[in-house]
Amino acid sequence: MNGLVSWRRDGDVAVITIDNPPVNALSHAVRAQLLAAVREADADAAVSAIVFACAGRTFVAGADISEFGKPAQSPILLDVIATLEHIDKPLVAAVHGTVLGGGLELTLACHFRVADARTKLGLPEIKLGLIPGAGGTQRLPRLIGMEHAAPMILTGGPIAAPLALEVGLIDEIAESDVLPAAITFARRAVRDTLPIRRVSEMENKLAGLRGKPDAYAAIVAPWAGARLDAPKAAIELLRLAPTLPFAEAMREERATFTRLMNGEQSKAQRYLFFAERAAAKHPALHPSLHPALKPAEPRAIAQAAVIGAGTMGTGIAMCFANAGIAVVLIDTDATAVARGRASIDKQYESSVARGRLTADDKAKRLGLISTAASLAAAKDADLIVEAVFEDMDVKKAVFRDLDAIAKPGAVLATNTSYLDINDIATSVSRPGAVIGLHFFSPANVMRLLEIVNATATDPAILAAMFALARKLGKVPVIVGVCRGFVGNRMLQVRAAAIERLLLEGALPAQIDAALVDFGFAMGPLAVSDLAGLGISWRMRKANGLHAAIADALCEAGRFGIKAGKGYYRYDAGSRRGVPDPDVAALIEQTSKRLGVTRRTFTPDEIVPRLITPMIEEGRRILAEGIAHQASDIDLIWVHGYGWPAARGGPMYYGGVS
Ligand code: 3H9
Known about the structure:
alpha/beta; 2-enoyl-CoA Hydratase, Chain A, domain 1; Rossmann fold; N-(1-d-carboxylethyl)-l-norvaline Dehydrogenase, domain 2; 17 strands; globular
């Protein structure tokens, strides 16, 4: 076996190092070599303690996901972990980077844990449709208590070293390099004969939950309504920690992990994990295709500007501030600027009230956002994002003005949802600087960013925007220019299919129920009411397009929640729609007027009627080269339009990817 795991003696301490770039995943070879190294070190009479560490940028970031779904190869991680935990010499994990999944479970088999100050530790399995499968569901609550363990396992979010120390997940934060600190810790453990702490034998943190099912139910209450297999299974497994002997609960954990791993939901979620990485391999980003880019000077975006202080503009400005980038929010209408600023304040304040942001961070972010009423304020920006009214003439006028103001090298981005960016680029003297950055509303929440690669877009700018999107915490996907790009083009196809179904006999609540049942958090018509029906109506009118039912609703003043009525009726102050007989009547009249015979539809008929045309449109998008690969389309629908991750995306669902 070639050396993925090595060990050496540092005095009487054995230092075992895993070196399996890029993230030290626990592949079969790593597991086998790790076990061998541990056994050797244990058998060496000159060794009195063992330290585990990893080379490279991170400690183990988990099991090797690419091995999932294939037959398990011995030794499995569970066996490695059981061997480690029962060694009688003190075992100390020296961790840095992202200690995730099986990586964290490996540290839970150690007797002590020392971390670099910037370490993040977590069990993200739930995001892959799994549960921790190497003891995490039973050891983590024993070590840090159920109140801390359950949220880590059910959200999959990592915690930072200081919190990990506070809750007892780690024993020490290294003041400088973690490895020497861990070696010192190991020597101290030997010298002071610190009792070996085997997490599987720690019972006191769970004592308060024994015989108290209500106390457990209260801790997991936020996830009690979970619809997916993995969170449901995690809740059942965590319940076992205070009720079953460790070994018995571990057997349940193993069986559950295997069941989930072989299930459709996890398969789809793992597909999406690799889809996100595949999006970064778009040929347009590949330096070999652009020799001029070889010494790729990453463009630093230190100052951004956003033009237009509407809902989109303010959300985009917040994205920059959240990532620590200074931004000026510009609108020639002074009241719009004031309104935008107030809305930003309110959103940050509400994050503070909900405990999601500290007052300090709020102040820092607000400090990064300035406002101005003149485009001239964009003159120093490295990136300018236009988010003004969706009208070609208006956008072109803004770009003409920006061309005169922006500094050389500045990126000129448009947030247009539908317009032809190649046409917009004709309004400037530097079309290579023009690119589409299509954010999704609310821009500071939604993770998708469609990066529109226009015909003249400079490849260096494309690469810079892809890197920036990552920095903003977005899921970037490169798309080409066409009406609506990828996401909205398919959305329009679905909207047309919805219109047709309504005309032929379905009612809004039936359509919404079918898609909610499919896995969407909200039905498409409830979403339309939330977003408002007016913008699409005006857009249709401007383009000579029609949607008989949606048009009729708008003509009747039913513009959605804000108007108190749309596809549904809304009681004063309520955002929950109730089916409205007036809408049913309006739809029936429209069918009659157009001579369409109505019939009833079952949910099983509704879903394919809406989804099959989307898949067909996706195929056309691929054939035209607007999207590079089917998985890019899936990422767009999962991260921008609420397609259920456990169903992989429309192209995956349709068997195209
Ligand atoms: C688990 O542990 C189950 C156990 O409970 C039980 C087992 C019995 N496996 O993301 P990046 C690849 S479940 C295989 O671009 P970053 C990735 O595909 C696992 N490959 O880097 C990419 O390859 P390529 C629980 C993996 O710096 C390359 O590494 N753990 C794995 O932006 C670089 O990745 C997780 O879910 C893996 N586990 O982010 C953690 N991880 O270059 C998953 C990465 O060919 N990983 N690769 O495209 C992550 O969250 C991020 O990769 C990480 C680094 C934050 C670590």
